[in-house]
Amino acid sequence: MTLPEVPRVVLVGNPNTGKTTLFNRLTGARGRVGNYPGITVERSVGRASLSASADTAAASECAFEDVPGCYSLASRSAEEQIAIDALLGRHDSVRPDLAVVVVDATNLERNLYLTLQVLELGRPTLVALNQMDALRDAGVEVDAAALSACLGVPVVPISAARAEGLDALRAAIATQLASPTLPPSDGWRWAPSDALRADLDAVAAHLGDERPEGTSDSAARALALWALMSVDADDELEDVPAALRLAVLDVQRAARAAGRDLDAEAITARYAFIDRHAPAFVRRPAEAPKAWSERVDTWLLHPVFGFVAFLAIMFTVFQALFAWSDPAIGLIEAAFAAAGGAARAHLPEGLATDFIVDGLIGGVGSVLVFLPQIVLLFTFIGVLEDTGYMARAAFLMDRVMNKVGLHGRAFVPLLSGYACAVPAIMATRTMERRRDRYLTMMVVPLMTCSARLPVYTLIIGALFPAGAWLGLPTQGLLMLGMYLFGTLMALVAAAVLGRTVLKGPRVPLILELPPFRRPHLGSLARLVSSRARVFLSEAGTVILAGSVVLWAILTFPRGSEEVTALEATRPQVEASSEGEAQTEALAALDAEIAGARLRNSLGGRIGHAIEPVIEPLGFDWKIGVGLLGAFAAREVFVSTMGVVYGVGADVDEESTTLRERMKAERRADGRPVYTPLTGLSLLFFFALACQCVSTLAAIKRETAGWRWPLFTLAYMTALAWVVSFVTWQVGSALGA
Predict the structure, then answer these.
(1) 157 strand-pairing partners
(2) Which of 7, 326, 450, 599 is the most exposed place for a label (fewest CB within 10 A)?
(3) Using CA atoms, how far apart are residues 558 and 602, in angstroms rounded to an integer?
(4) Residue 670 class from Cβ within 10 Å (0-12 exposed, 13-18 middle, 19+ buried)?
C-alpha cells in the first residue's frame, strides 16, 4: 500500500472510543482498506485536508492511518501488533510523523494507560479527547488544559459522532506537523524501579533492527518494555529477531526466579501515575445516577433472562438471513438462469457454448448467490457491534463456549454458519487470538448451512414416509434433528481439536462493556461494502475457478459408445411422433444423452473408481458422482443426480420424477439402492463432509495458505466416512 509523499498521522486508541468514526469524519469517502499479509485484521488509510477552508486545502493535506483498536501495545493480538508496527514503522509500515491518541472521555483513566505507552515511545503525540457530548450528559467534567499539562502534549476536546471540535483538531494536527514537539522526558511519566530499569537495558542491547535509527535511549527502553510484555513461549508474534527473543526469555526466567512479575510492575506503575494525577483533571458528581444502560445490563447479562434475550435476538438474525436474503438470491439465480438461456439461444450449439453457459455463467452465479447473505450478515454484525450488544453477547456466551475450548466471540461465526460457512469464516476476524480464529474456522463448516437444505429435502422427501411420531410430523422432526446433529458435532469437534491439533492455553474473555449507542450508518455502509468487495474479488475468484474445473471433469471426454448409440436413435424418435409428443420424446432423449455423457465423463469414471470406498457406506457410483458434483456447492448434488438419472439438470429437491427414479433404482442383486437406512447414511455424510469449494477457499484466504483448508477437508471427510460407515453397517446388521 503506497501513498503520496505527505505527512503521515496514525490514529490509535482503545476499542469503542470512536476512532474509526473520527477517521471517517476526517477522510470522508476517500478511506480505503488494505490487508496486511498473513493476517485477517485491517487498517484503513486515507487522505484529508487539515484546513477548514477549501482554498487552502492543497497546502495542508496529510495521510491518516486508522489501526485496529487495542487496550495496550503489548502485542498479544493481531490488532496490537499492527498498532505497534504502525507507530514504529516496523515491517511494511512507514514511520508516522504524528500519533493521535483517540481517548474516550467517559472512560478517561482506563484510556490513559495506552496513552502513556504511546508517549513512552518518544514520538510527537496529540490526544483527541472524544465523546465530550456523552461526558456532558453524564455530568462529568474533564479539564483539557490540566490534562495537557499532566501529559505534556496537546489535548483537543471533540465529539466525532457530532462533528464537534474537528476544526480545532485539524488546526492542532497542522501545528504539530509544522513544528513537532516531543513529549517531555522522552515521554516517560513514571520511573521504573532500579531492577526493572536494569532488565530494560539488558533487553534494549539486543533490539537490533527493532530499534529504528535515531531512537533515543529512553525510547529504546520503551521498546524493550514492549518486548518484555509481548514475547513469551506461547506468543504469536512473527519476525522477532532470535537474539531479542532469547534475551527476553532469559530476563523473564530470572525475574520469575526472583519472585518478580514484570507485567505487574509496569502496569501498576502506570496506573499509579494515572490515579495520582486524575483528581487534577477529572471531576465527577458525588453520587452519579445509575445509567439506563446499567439497568438494561442487569437483564441482558442475567444468567436466565440474558439467554432468553440472546436467543430472541439471534433467532431474529437467523430468520432474517434466510427470509430476507431469499428474494435477492432468487433474483440472482433467475438473472443468471436467464443469462444462460439467452446465451444458449443465441450461440451455436457446441462445447464453447456449454463452457460459457455452464462453466462461466454458472460459475459466476454460484459466487454471487452468496452475496445477499454476506451483506445481511455483516450488516447485522455491524449493528450489534455499534450498539454495544455484541460485547454483552460474547460475555454471556463465554460461559458455554469455554467448556468446549472455544472463545466467547466464536458464537457469532457459529451462528452465522447456519446461513453460510463463507461469511461465517470471514466473521472470525472479530476474534483476537489466531488459535481461537483457526479453531472456530475448523468447526464452522459442521454447522447446518442453507446449502444443505435442498439435499436434506430431497433425501427426506424421497426416502422417509410423511407420517407422524407423537403427533409431530416425522419429516419435520428429522430435519430439526439434522440441525441439532450438526451443532452437536461442531461442539464435539471443537473440544477434540482444541485439545489436540490446536492445543493451547485457554485465554479468559477480557472485554469492556461499552455504553449503548446508535449505529453510525456511514461506518456501517463502509464495513458492509468492504466485506462484499473482499469476498467478490478474492474468495469469488477461487469459487469460480473451482466451478469451471468441476464443469470440465463432468463434461470430458464427450464421446462414448453409449452416447453415440443414443444419438443414432434421434431420427427414429423424430419420425415416430410429432407435435407436443415429439417435443417430449426429444427432451427425454436429450436427458438420457446428458446422463450417458456424465456417466462416461471423467467425473463418472471417478465415481466408478471410488465406488469401492463408498460402497461400505451404502452408496453406489451414481451417488459418488453426486458427491463429486457437490464440491462446487452442496445443492449441486440435486441437479447432478438429475443428470445421472436422465431426468435433466433443471430439477429441484422437490422433483417428483427424480424421487421416483431414485426409489426405483436397484442393485445388481435386485435390492433397492435407496432405503431409509441409505438416506440416513447419506444425511450424516452430507452433515459432516466439507463438500464446498467456497468454504475451503474462504479458509485458505483467512489462513493465508493451503495447510488448514486441506486439514479441514481431510478431517471432515474422514469423520463423515466413519459416521456413515457405522450407521450403514450397524443398521444393516440389525436388519434395517
Answers:
(1) 129
(2) 326
(3) 9
(4) exposed
Q: Which three cell numbers mark 6?
A: 505527505
268-316 pLDDT, tens per residue?
Answer: 999 999 999 999 998 877 655 556 667 787 888 888 888 888 878 877 7
Q: How far is CA 724 from CA 181, 241, 265, 462, 731, in A?
A: 69, 49, 56, 19, 10
Pairing between strand 468-469 and 472-473?
antiparallel
**C-alpha to C-alpha distance for 732 and 727, rounded to whole angstroms:** 8
* C-alpha cell at position 458: 430431497
Q: Return the percentage of the chain with pLDDT > 90, whole number.
A: 23
- 156 DSSP β-pair partners: 128
Largest CA distance in the chain: 103
CA-to-CA distance for 600 and 583, rounded, in angstroms?
26
Pairing of strands 98-104, 125-130: parallel
User: pTM of whole model > 0.70?
Assistant: no
Instruction: Note the pLDDT tens digit of each residue in 66-83.
Output: 887 888 887 665 556 777
From the list 628, 627, 618, the residue with the least C-alpha distance to 665 is 618
Cα angle value 700/702/703 (rounded, 5°): 65
Cell of 619: 452408496
Amino acid at 22: L
Enter the DSSP assignment of 507: P
For 419-442, what is the mean pLDDT? 82
The class level of CATH for 8-187 reads alpha beta
**Which residues share a beta bridge with 99?**
10, 125
Distance, C-alpha 209 to centroid of its chain: 33
Rg of the Cα atoms in the chain: 31
Average pLDDT over residues 370-376: 76
